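DATA SHEET
Item: assembly model
Revision: 1
Owner: S.N.
Input lines:
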Amino acid sequence: GAGVSQTPSNKVTEKGKYVELRCDPISGHTALYWYRQSLGQGPEFLIYFQGTGAADDSGLPNDRFFAVRPEGSVSTLKIQRTERGDSAVYLCASSFGPGETQYFGPGTRLLVL
Amino acid sequence: GEDVEQSLFLSVREGDSSVINCTYTDSSSTYLYWYKQEPGAGLQLLTYIFSNMDMKQDQRLTVLLNKKDKHLSLRIADTQTGDSAIYFCAERLDVGASRQLTFGSGTQLTVLP
């Protein structure tokens, strides 16, 4: 595709529920990144994939957060037992290679009630 | 991010130049980036500079980097109302497997007609 796409664009869920957020990177990009942006803040790094493997997951806040990229393209960020503090915009980015410029998608706005 | 700081607001008149400033703390940064975010949208890459450069110009945009003072600035010439947005600076450290970007909290640029 022309750019990074993310679905859904908005997600409303209840505290304690499980959610999945999807990211479709730019075609041919081997590196994929997840960030979280809280209101009034800059994005904060969560996890980075090179191919199918998580090269750096140091930004995941706790074990309720998990991400996969089984075929080295689409990635899914999974959040278990959601909490109100998880409400944020979740941004995905991709780059051609690990040292290349990161291009961002439009984000998924998650609201946990 | 606590390692990258920006002033929160900047207001300029249409046609004037805008200068957005950023300070970072890690002298090991490899690349420094400027992204633009319009309301409800993702991050749009504006420009970037490699850490061994002092200046980079790209049409209306000029980036200045002072490594000694760990200071980065973005100058927008002939600012237009369409430039109104939040501008984020970000650094990339490339430590081990990490390729994460560390963002500032963003500068809200308002362009007055």
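QC remark: Chain A has no helices and eleven strands.
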